[in-house]
Design a protein that fits this description.
mainly alpha, about 65% helix
Length: about 375
Amino acid sequence: MSAEAEPVGSLVDGLFRREAGRLVARLARQLGAARLELAEDAVQEALLAALRTWSIRGVPQDPRAWLARAARNAALDRLRGQRESTAEAEVLERWNDEEPRDPDALEDSELAMLFACAHPALAREARVALMLNAVAGFAAAEIARLGLESESAVAQRLVRAKAKLRDEELRLETPRGAELAERLEGVLDAVYGMLTEGLSAHRGEELVRADVVRAALRLALELARDPRTATPRSHALAALALFHAARVPARTDAAGGPLLLEEQDRGRWDRKLIALGFAQLSLAASGDELSELHIEAGIASQHALARTWDDTDWQAILHWYDLLAERNASPVVRLNRAVALAKVHGAGARSGAERALLERKLARARTP
């Protein structure tokens, strides 16, 4: 690749991460969930066309609009070759994508796609994989490298998930009223799954996938900002994502090895993201519910407050873990609580459980 073409490649890659999900959502909303794979293929063609064309003719004044038109035309070309798709082609021919929009806001089509990916008919693993693929633009191979499963297994899971949506004859629409509130939990859970996968990739060279964390953070913030989805739990998830994203630059050493929380250079933490995290945490307290997301965000906030490891308020963290253990007594929660308990009662109280946890964290690059 030439020196002139390389910036184009970087630009297209960045646009792909930000815009692919939105473009797929817009096309799929026009064509229906049964045409989700066609929409994805059309967006891929548009991005490849951008790489070829922009390297020769230069980057257009409005790259997003160019990509939208290219994706629409690619979808039209495919539909015109299918006799039974005449009506769908006519819908796309009338589609106008020139309306102005806020790049930081959730579009109706994107929100509808989020709810489709978190459809109750899908298993949790399928929801997370489908959201990573259809909304965040990650290929099956990339998802596999996060450690979900092998590439072939992930690909099959995606195929089955899309077939399930097709069989459900799902219309890509945002639920309303009580249904929206009920199904929002599935959306939040899937975004939370994206966040945890990015923070603890199990395989591959990278133990932390910053791009996955950023994708989860973007969705969490958009859900927290949108009046339709801005619930206390949404704000709690946004706070949690912000606190974790702030620490990503310090989670690994120069060689890419994991660093425990007590080893991290806190000067590398993003204080702007931490401040935004506390703002979201304040909004999360507006309701009368204390969810697991609230508690995890509370734990993360205590670590964010501490200027050094020794300054950590372990009494507060132990309180949060006591609350979390009442709702989720998983082995990881119990072991993390053991760390806080040992810190509160002195170094001499460090248990075998705590030592096991530290070894586990060293292996998986997780923090308490």
